[in-house]
Amino acid sequence: MPPPNEFAEPDLGLPTYPVFPFVHPSLFWIGLPLIALPVLIHLINLLRQRKVEWAAMEFLLASQKKHRKWIILKQLLLLLARMTAIAALLLMVAQPVLKNQWGTLFGGSNTHHVVLLDDSFSMSDRWADTSAFKQAKQVVERLASRASRQETPQTFTLLRFSRAGRGSSGLQPDLISEPVTADFAAKLEGTLGPLAVSQTAAGPADALDAVERLPAAREDETRVVYLVSDFRANEWNEPTALRKALGKLDTSRAQLHLVNCVDTGRGNLTIAQLQAVPGVRAANVPLMIDVAVTNHGASQVKHVSVLLEEDGHARPAISVEEIPAGKTVSRRFPVVFSTAGEHLLKAQLESDAIEIDNLRFAVVEVSAAAPVLVIDGSPDGKDAYFLATALAPGGKIKSGIKPIIESARYLRSNPLEGFAAIYLANIERLDPAEIEALEAYTRSGGGVAFFLGERSTSDFFNKQLYRDGAGLFPAPLAQSVQLLVDRLEKVPDLQVTDHPIFAVFSGERNSFISAVIIERYFATAPGWQPDPASTTKVIARVRNGAPLAVERNFGAGRTIAFLTKAAPTTTDQGPWNNWARGNPSFVVAMLELEAYLSAARQSVATRFVGTPLEMKLTAGSYRPQVRFTMPNDRGATSGKDGGALSVDAEQAKDALGVAFHETQSSGFYEAQLTKTDGSNEIRRFAVNVDPAEGNLKHLDGPQLAARLAGVRVKLHNAGDFAFDTGQLAGFNLGESLLYASIIVLLVEQLLAYFTSYHPKPIGGARR
Amino acid sequence: MPASKRFLHPEAIGRIARLDLRARQIVEGFLSGIHRSPYFGQSVEFVQHREYVAGDDLRHVDWKVWAKHDRYYVKQFEEDTNLRCTLLVDVSNSMRYGGAPMNKFEYGATIAISLAYLLLGQQDSVGLLAFDERVRNKTPQRTRRTHLNSLIQALTVSEPAHKTDLESILREAAEAYPRRGLMVLVSDLFADRAGLFKGIKLLRQRGHDVLVFHVLDDDELDFDFSGPTRFEGLESNDFLNCNPRALREGYLQALNGYLEEIRRGLAQNDVEYALLRTSQPLDQALAAFVANRQAANVKRN
Question: Which residue of A45, A51, A757 is in closest CB contact with B232?
Fold first, then answer.
């Protein structure tokens, strides 16, 4: 079961404050009359005054006349000072809680240390006998130790970057508003000890954002936020969002300390990519795999060998001669899987600064043969024949493609999901249900190719399939036109672009393509040009510049329209082209077309550590409980080491949705599904670390300060990190009132001294 | 306590008995005594020769000079006389201020009576005048020892009143005791200074040797009060509620100014002045004063 989405505020057992801003309001009210005490004492003294019959009234009256005003002023001041002193003592005992800006100016009585600990895998950066994460842990320990020595109440929150996500796993601090008491050190050690670097690339943004969502331990607390991280350039180089987050904390009057845990940026190699090249994925058909290695270092690296494993068995390693600094180098190698099903690929680099990104996993699904649907509108079926022959030549050559030739009716009555691609050749018309089925197939990632012919009419294509750009067909048509023969012209009839379909023909002059003769084609509507902002592109033209092949994306899938006929046969309007007749380039282009059309369906989303594995199951076919097996520390699926968890699927419309959130490490994950008939089905997933996190380039103090100019932060290095005790002690208002009381009492004493009588050693009048 | 014991302290008397109080200036008396007289008389102290005129006592003709010069000269001798001393004692309300062991009145009266005892002991005649706003009691000058009792009686005044103008009191004293003698004023002098100085000047013009004992209490000199206090005038209807500590400085300033004025005014009239604290041991104060005066007289002669 996934953890709760919303962060629930725990009951911290701390006092809640009434509306009146005092910690002890009753003490305040009880003590309030005491402020009048000096006046009362004065009045009592007046009642108690002594009566003296005095002879020398003359001098007394003279003195009184002379000093009267000054005496009254001094006495009033003294009275005021005494009342102020009592008020200050009273406030000190009652502990006022000032919530406005003045309160924060004085500081709260409680200091809340919020430590945001970077545990992204770049923190596993090793040097000498330490690592960035070890340094970070030491910083946290030192912080706690200093906090425990403060006199004011201290609370401590520890939040790892990987646990600060806004996602479904929610906010999961390791320590939350923990009072720093005598046994705190032991508790922190127990928490901090087992912590290890995660495999996520979690950045500081979520963690900073989470500080706002943390509950306050006390209303008058002063927050001190420590960002203990490695400050990698890829996150902090343009920290617009981070500046905003830090600025937000700054305005909420939290103190910000950035603690850098690495000494310098080190070189590191990362496997940036391991994936199958789009193409036919069928058993016993060679499949090309791309592997890419990025050199994040500042100098070039030579002789890098990439170790490969295929279904757990070692393959010959690939050697990369040289990777320039900061560059990514790709290598492509063929793999032939002998069986249909999911196959596991693993690439590994030799040990360097960071281990975690030296591994890369991929799951490649291979079918026995890739079925494609060919719909032919011509009565003789020649178009379908030529297409099917090109896709599956037969004999010793195995393309892995299995063409199925059907009429248009097939579209409305059969599921299309199983087809790698659909070809429509020389169709006259489709009814709305067929168009809808075709569009639904394309939207969900399918690839559709159109070939026109003598039966095709611009009226149907424009109204039903193009629909002013809303439909499947990529371009509006005019009439079929004949390409005039120009004997003097040396330019080939077929002009191709560097589109993947024609990529193999690019470069050198190719006699096969130049041998293609186009005699008739459908012109596009006059004045039509593909909108540069759209996905519609002309990928091949005839000699006169008119479009011959146009493609567009439609939903998740794509469509390509060839505006001429597939079959090189002669029609009533004459021959259309000779491409399929004995020209090998037709076969090559059609296989590439097939690979291109099916790529959208084959593309597997790259899953990074921390993102959930999601599946949609057909309702009624599967039981709702799915058992996930997690990888061990080498990435291999093993129920013994990695552990397994069962997840209940949730009913969503007509499908079962399954989401597995425990993707905390890279490797192969297995989902074991149970069908309603009792049989099992295994699906495999590859989860990888984010290769960008492997970039260890880091910003030093001045660089970071320059990028964070205007935000009030303090920068520290882990090695020499020691915070100012006074600053962290917080400003207990009670304590400040104590000092205020002392000052007022001193002033009172001073005033009293000057107001009162102090006999001189000799004393009296002169003799 | 009998009145004689009230103002006669054996220890004070004991200390000053060995001393004698001499008039600093020439005084008139009718007994041969220890004070110089303006009259020539029978004495061992030769003063001058004078040519004989008819009527001179033949006993005083210096026959040795006649024998040498054949001219008649008479020898003149200095005549000693007894001192006529008048004690002017302030018995007004303000003199009642003060606590143990003595208030200002008692202190002043003791000084007066001790001096009277001393003077009577050396055959001088002593009179006393007790006054407040007017002269309350007056005794004539006598040389008899028994006169001491009448002096003491004169000091006993019921319902003392406020002091008014000292000038009139002193004028009255001058008229009551016209013969030159010693005038001893014992008072706290809380009265109009101009009147005081005028009165003193008058006494001096009449040829009196004037001596002022200024008696003040410690409280009055130091103003050592604390706590809220209501001061009510002993010789006026004024009152003042105050914190005495606050007023002390100003009070002492005013008091010192007043004492300085008294001192200067009296010095101008060549009057001997002694400020006495009631806490001061009386015998010491008196002995010191008398001894000083003796020394001054020796120096002068």
Answer: A51
* pLDDT of residue A8 exceeding 80: no
Contact yes or no for A56 and B255 at CB 8 A = yes
Which one has a higher pLDDT value, A635 or B192?
B192
Pick B232's closest partner by Cβ from A53, A66, A67. A53
Classify domain B3-22+83-300 by CATH architecture: 3-Layer(aba) Sandwich (3.40)
Cβ contact, residue pair A764, B259, below 8 Å? no
Omega of the bond leading into A10 within 30 degrees of 0 (cis): no
Looking at chain B, which residue has its C-alpha nearest residue A43? B228
Chain A nearest-CA distance from B206, in A, is 30
Its ipTM equals 0.78
Contacts of A63 in chain B (CB under 8 A): 247-251, 253-254
Name the residue of chain B whose CA is nearest to A75's CA.
Answer: B246
Predicted confidence (pLDDT) at residue A285 exceeds the cutoff of 50: yes
Contact B275 A48 (CB under 8 A): no
pLDDT exceeds cutoff 50 at A3: no
Backbone angles phi, psi at A725, to 5 degrees: -60, -45
pLDDT in tens, B42-80: 555 677 788 888 888 888 888 988 999 999 988 876 655
Q: Which of A146-150, A485-489, A536-540, B72-76 has the highest mean pLDDT?
A: A536-540
Per the rule left: phi > 0, alpha: psi between -120 and 50, beta: everything else, A468 is left
Total residue count of chain A as it appears in this document: 767
Chain B: closest CA distance from residue A757 (Å): 5
Q: Do A67 and B256 touch (CB under 8 A)?
A: no
Q: Which domains are seen in chain A, by residue range? A: 25-103+735-755 (no CATH), 110-265+696-730 (3.40.50.410), 269-367 (2.60.40.10), 370-602 (3.40.50.880), 607-688 (2.60.40.10)
Asked whether the beta carbons of residue B221 and residue A764 sit closer than 8 angstroms, the reply is yes
Q: Where are the domains of chain B?
A: 3-22+83-300, 35-81
How does pLDDT run across B231-279, given as a tens digit for each residue?
A: 988 888 888 888 888 788 889 999 999 999 999 999 999 898 989 888 8
Strand partners, A648: A625
Residues 6 or more apart in contact with residue A520 via CB below 8 angstroms: A480, A481, A482, A483, A564, A565, A573, A574, A575, A576, A577
B225 and A52: CB-CB below 8 Å? yes
- What does the alpha-carbon distance between residue B170 and residue A572 come to, in Å, rounded to a whole number? 169
Q: What is the pTM of this model?
A: 0.55
Whether B231 sits inside 8 A of A763 (CB atoms) is no
Single-letter code of the amino acid located at B23 = A
What pLDDT, on the 0 to 100 scale, is given for residue A726?
38
